[in-house]
Design goal:
By secondary structure, the chain is mostly helical. The chain is about 65% helix and about 0% strand.
């Protein structure tokens, strides 16, 4: 009969953390954290552009990336500390769990794996803060996401504003002809050709400088009169 308090041969607290499982968990966590940083920084870019009417500054956005990486790293360290506290309490609890957050002695390996995952992920995130290439890549991804979000909103609103009614095609040709006969006719009557219309401005812009005439010696006025 085993002495009271002695661990059995198969005590889960004696099993080491699987390095394969740990690496997979850290890699997956890093991908999630990276996506979260892109979203957070993109939101900052949008806020700076629309609310504060600021300009995009790569260096400023890069600093925002580093801040987000540090913030997430600190969160991971806090989660690791929480796992240690839970392990300390659960090591005294035996029997079956009553719900998913009711950890017991048998959950020790799971909790140690989570603790190690949070610690390694925090270290990885802090290390990436010093990786200029990684930071620059996040900046570009955040800028592209911000542009897509703003562009989608603008295009969506324009599409709504310009969307024709369901009966738009009915009578379309008649409306176009009425516009030509009435609206354009009134426009031409109000601005006849030669009374300061764009045609006159264009002609003035093409006039030669003083002293520049045709090489054949003809009078420019005569040349103008001969034009069709």
């Amino acid at each position: 009969m085993a002495l009271f308090g002695r661990r059995s041969k198969h005590d889960v607290r004696d099993r080491p953390v699987s390095q394969v499982e740990l690496k997979r968990a850290v890699d997956e966590g890093f991908l999630i954290a990276k996506a979260a940083v892109v979203v957070a920084v993109a939101n900052r870019v949008i806020t700076n552009s629309l609310r504060d009417q600021g300009y995009f500054d790569h260096a400023v956005v890069a600093e925002s990336v580093r801040e987000e990486l540090h913030r997430l790293a600190e969160e991971q360290r806090g989660d690791a500390a929480r796992m240690r506290e839970i392990r300390s309490r659960s090591s005294k609890q035996t029997g079956r769990s009553r719900h998913q957050h009711d950890y017991r002695r048998g959950d020790d390996l799971k909790l140690r794996t989570r603790e190690a995952t949070y610690e390694q992920l925090a270290t990885m995130l802090d290390r990436r803060r010093e990786d200029q290439g990684f930071v620059d890549g996040i900046v570009l991804q955040a800028r592209a996401r911000a542009w897509d979000d703003i562009g989608t909103t603008v295009v969506g609103r324009l599409g709504w504003a310009q969307r024709p009614t369901e009966d738009y095609e009915i009578g379309r040709d008649e409306r176009l002809q009425q516009m030509l006969d009435e609206d354009f006719a009134e426009l031409l009557a109000a601005h006849p050709v030669g009374s300061g219309t764009p045609e006159t401005v264009a002609a003035d812009a093409d006039e030669p400088d003083e002293g520049d005439g045709p090489e054949d010696g003809t009078d420019p006025a005569d040349a103008d009169a001969a034009r069709p």
